[in-house]
Give the backbone structure.
Amino acid sequence: MAKAGPYLRCAAAARRLGVTAKALRVYEAHGLVRAERTAAGWRVYGPDQIARLHQVIALKSFGFSLSRIAELLSGGMPDLATFLEWHDQVLCQEAERIDRARRLLGTARLKLARGDGLSLDDLMTLSKETTMTDNRTEDLAAAYAVVANKHFSAADQAILTANGYRGMDKPDADWDALGQEAARLMKIVDPTSAEAMDLARRWMGKVFEATGGDPALTERMRTVARELNRHPDFAAASNSSNEMTDFITKAYGAAIAAGILPKPVSVG
């Protein structure tokens, strides 16, 4: 939660945040922030608006479009402390990547200074490690590990691994297909429709493959998914969302109520 503080006029807020006043007006036009107005009609930004703008600017630096940022914020972003923790993780990972790249460049420059050439392996490594690309694979793995370790016990993770579950940070064609179908159905049908209930049957079937049908472990997996859906790196890489999770949950409940699917029972 942001501390109480003074209200800043548009130009002052822009200067303190390192953006232009025009950028603040663009963010407001996209519904990303709502400035308050003085009696004279001047835009002013208080602590809540500044905290919101911090999230907007950070998400933009992660590579999100303004329309995608609007979707993320409308879905409910985490509190400021959690968001800052995620932002710190992203910056630490980027700092580590830059340090590694600089060490490689330094080694390459020393070789050239000694009159040694660079091998094909040297050049390929330099190209891979020092090019400014947006490869988030390692970031996704790190983010998943943090959230999974918070909610899954060692026994949970052993069960998931034994059942062939690789983690939410790994590509999975089946989940991609289910997510695309869910995104399509969310626009055209109610969760109680036959199509939605059939999707929920297949969706939860895949979840139960991983959890062995254990309701407690299934609920923990759902908690992990909901937390990851709010994480900037996952939001950028996945078509999933907490709205999608809610849609599937309602469809699954409707299928149970209709007698189409059995109610899960505890195992063990």
